[in-house]
Design brief:
heterodimer, A: Rossmann fold, B: alpha/beta, 2 domains
């Protein structure tokens, strides 16, 4: 019995990485998908942007599972764009049950006083305000269904703890926890559950690049992926450098399903024990 | 394909309530079970505790799913007895993968009025008993070389303070510290350790006169019905429900026991209808 059979999930940042993984995992368990991605470069990001081809690949993988998917290019900084996609998606797929607010950037790494004004603003606009807008667009549809629902926000261990050189990212990811808790209280009467997931390092393009290697190994001029893995492992309790995107997706699936029907307001680390180290 | 196919789970407090539910839910997903329960009345506990017939019923339900179960009476405060049951169970079932440290009691008293006996019995069962359970299980988990998953049943009272049961709150907070330390100590062996934190669960531990009196002291005894108490419990939760079902805790235990949560460790997981967010 598929665990989210007949449900519809709205996923932001669905072109690749964790977002694509969530789309595929939920589709494997019977859900149809509404997916968006900006599919454009963000100047301060130190890794290649997702493309429209990436988003098409997500579409291909979901359709190969015999599930339906509406996928469009959209920017979580633009509420009208988001709303238009969700409205169109729900009109075509018939309902909305699950929201994965996953879209996010890593930006550039700097001491707090050296972060340029526009980079601070853009980080908050995407990683925090974009999450709020995602929920804002989705909530009327969840309420209209009268069946409750499940909103899952992708935060980070940086949403629970402080890390140097990324204070804008840390602030946005922390802010998301406050938003999650408030939404959990506001939407409880409608049986709409809201939780956040806090990954440690996840093996995706956001992490697998030289800027991140240097962030983790400031002692080396040209750190390799193995140098990075050494430092990444030291952050975790379990002896692994990173988790796979599917590990986050399995947590998303659990929270999206009726097995978690009474779980709300919870920050859930999927972090190889980094939070207790 | 069950989510726990081929695995063996050790469940304490398995005679009824949440413990029986965990045994059955995990058996539904393919696990064999080692089950213990004290299965008798403890002196400081005011509600009727499980008995040997209850444990036998758990056995029957697991076997009806075509799974094997070794079930014995044992008090989690008695380390030697616990170890003996677990050693016997592992010898018979061949391995150990999962531990659900669920056995617990609930009693009441203001902090300055609790008796020594009441305090000691609570800490003995709800905290020391959990340590004993882990201590007995760890050698078997390590011997398997396959990692493992320990799930400790705490409570919303393990995250927040509540009046009238300081010993219960202390023990339930204490197991969080134990969980975090175990998570660090066992990480090199890929043995994961997490805690679940239920709000009120619809079992005999809450559906009894003592607890009704505690949560609705202003009502006359004959007004303290299940429905009236349901309204009081609902006020503690964010979702508009009075309590969760044992299966809701079991579904969280199942997820934490399975490979889907293979890298989740050191986590406090509330299954609490938003009570700790309120």
């Amino acid at each position: 019995m598929a665990r989210v059979q007949g449900k519809v999930a709205f996923i932001t940042g669905a072109a690749r990485g964790q977002g694509r993984s969530h789309a595929v995992r939920l589709a494997q368990e019977g859900a149809d998908i509404i997916g968006i991605d900006i599919c454009e470069a963000i100047p301060e990001n130190q890794y290649p942007p997702a493309t429209e081809e990436d988003l098409q690949e997500t579409v291909r993988q979901v359709e190969a599972l015999d599930r339906r998917i509406i996928a469009e290019k959209a920017d979580v900084r633009d509420f009208e764009q988001l709303k238009a996609v969700v409205d169109r998606g729900v009109a075509e797929l018939g309902r909305l049950d699950i929201v994965c607010a996953n879209a996010g950037i890593a930006g550039r790494f700097n001491r707090s006083e050296d972060i340029p004004d526009d980079e601070w603003a853009n980080m908050l606009d995407i990683n925090l305000s974009g999450v709020w807008r995602t929920c804002k667009a989705a909530i009327p549809h969840l309420k209209a269904g009268g069946r409750g629902g499940s909103i899952i926000l992708t935060s980070s261990d940086a949403g629970l703890f402080a890390y140097e050189n990324i204070s804008h990212y840390v602030s946005a990811k922390h802010g998301m926890v406050g938003l999650m808790r408030t939404l959990a209280l506001e939407l409880a009467p409608d049986m709409i559950r809201v939780n956040s997931i806090h990954p440690t390092t996840v093996d995706t393009p956001m992490v697998n690049n030289e800027a991140v290697f240097k962030l983790f190994r400031p002692d080396l001029e040209h750190p390799t992926v193995d140098d990075f893995a050494e430092a990444a492992t030291a952050m975790n309790a379990l002896p692994i450098p990173w988790v796979e995107a599917v590990d986050i997706s399995n947590a998303v699936l659990f929270l999206a399903s009726d097995e978690a029907r009474y779980i709300t307001g919870v920050p859930l680390p999927v972090d190889a024990g980094a939070a207790v180290k | 394909m069950g989510r726990l196919d081929g695995k063996v789970a050790f469940v304490t407090g398995a005679a009824r309530g949440q413990g029986r539910s965990h045994a059955v839910r995990m058996a539904e997903e393919g696990a064999d079970i080692i089950a213990v329960d004290v299965a008798k009345q403890l002196p400081t506990v005011e509600y009727e505790m499980a008995n040997p017939d209850d444990l036998a019923e758990t056995m029957r339900q697991v076997e009806a799913l075509d799974r094997r179960i070794v079930a014995r009476e044992a008090d989690v405060r008695d380390y030697a007895a616990l170890k003996s049951v677990l050693d016997e169970g592992v010898a018979e079932l061949g391995r150990l993968d999962i531990v659900a440290a669920n056995a617990g009691i609930f009693t009441q008293g203001r902090a300055d009025e609790l008796s020594e006996e009441s305090w000691n019995e609570m800490i003995g069962v709800n905290l020391t008993g959990v340590w004993h359970t882990a201590k007995a299980a760890i050698p078997h988990l390590k011997a398997g070389g396959n990692g493992g998953s320990i799930i400790i049943t705490s409570s919303t009272a393990g995250l927040k303070g509540y009046e009238n049961f300081a010993h219960y709150v202390s023990a339930k907070h204490g197991v969080v510290g134990l969980m975090r330390t175990l998570a660090l100590e066992l990480a090199p062996d890929m043995i994961r350790v997490n805690s679940v934190h239920p709000t009120g669960v619809d079992t005999p531990m809450i559906q009894n006169e003592m607890l009704y009196g505690l949560f609705a002291p202003d009502l006359e005894p004959d007004e303290r019905t299940r429905e009236a108490l349901g309204e009081r419990f609902k006020a503690l939760n964010a979702l508009p429900i009075p309590w969760v079902e044992p299966v809701d805790i079991s579904n969280a235990v199942l997820w934490l026991a399975s490979d889907e949560s293979r890298y989740v460790t050191g986590v406090t997981l509330p299954v609490d209808a938003g009570a700790t967010t309120k």
